[in-house]
Amino acid sequence: MTTLPRVAIPAQAPVDAAAAAGLAAAAGLAAATGEEGSEVGEVLVSAADLQRRVAELGKQISRAYYRTRPPQPLLLVGVLKGAVFFLSDLMRHIDIPVEVDFMAVASYGSATDSSGVVRILKDLDAAIEGRDVLIVEDIVDSGLTLQYLMRNLGSRNPRTLEVCALLVKPARRKVGRSRGTLAFGEYPRFDQPPRYVGFEIEDRFVVGYGLDYAERYRNLPFVASLEKE
Ligand code: IMP
Ligand code: MG
Questions:
Q1: CB contact set of 82 (below 8 Å; sequence gap of 6+)
Q2: Which of 85, 108, 211 to mutate to test ligand 1, by most ligand atoms within 8 A of the CB atom?
Q3: Annotated active-site positions, please?
Q4: How far is it, in rounded angstroms, from Cα 51 to Cα 16?
Q5: How crowded is residue 25: how many other Cβ atoms within 10 Å of its Cβ?
Q6: What ligand has the least distance to the C-alpha of 226?
Q7: Residue 63 to residue 53: CA distance in whole angstroms
């Protein structure tokens, strides 16, 4: 009878973390640009800046929700597929009880423009009535997708409904421009900008860290502009 090892043994010797990160970035770029020229342009948010900001957001969210009464786990609702990468990093920086569920939506429109007409491809697994719900989005562009989600989830009577978006493009926003500040959890107002925002970026189409162009480039560890001829 063989004895199984009690811990996994790494197949290779551990490598220096910084060197590994550099290699990963280079490999990502090579993989992204290798086939069809240089679609991946300027790096707008570096891998290090992403990780630092995601840690800050995790702390901020933990502080905001740790006193909810009666106590209940925070529910993160990730919007597939783009938010998965951000959400999984963010969740590891949240140090209060937290659960996760996912929705998949398709927005009719061109590859780079959403129309605001949204179709649910996958709904939540569980009811959210009375729950503290935090929608986690990769990017808010026109804000139309988010507005639809807020209305849809808001109608299910969660206790609170807030939004955490990694990136927002203020110049493109068609909805969510309202200036007034709401008290925490005072929702249903669907024209509010997200309460938690990673970075505001200029009006360029971006890829990486979950964001795709025709399903490509989600694996890049940084956010870069898409350069197209
Ligand atoms: P909105 O409805 O215009 O706010 O667009 C929302 C969705 O469009 C996001 O969840 C993304 O999936 C996609 N999207 C918007 N801008 C970008 C971008 O610059 N890069 C990649 N995807 C984007
Ligand atoms: Mg997309």
A1: 137, 138, 139, 210, 211, 212, 218
A2: 211
A3: 141
A4: 17
A5: 17
A6: 1
A7: 15
For 10-63, the pLDDT digits (tens) are: 555 444 555 545 544 554 555 555 455 669 999 999 999 999 999 999 999 999
For the entire predicted model, the pTM comes to: 0.81
pLDDT tens digits, 181-212: 455 555 545 567 899 999 999 999 999 999 99
d(CA 195, CA 180): 12
Determine if ligand 1 sits within 6 Å of the CB of residue 226: no
Report the distance separating Cα 152 and Cα 150, nearest Å.
5
User: In this structure, what DSSP letter does residue 210 have?
Assistant: T
* The two three-digit tokens of residue 220, written as one number: 């890049």
- How far is it, in rounded angstroms, from Cα 176 to Cα 192? 5
The atom number, within ligand 1, closest to the CA of 142 reads: 3
* Pocket test residue of 110, 115, 118, 141 for ligand 1, highest count of atoms within 8 A of CB: 141
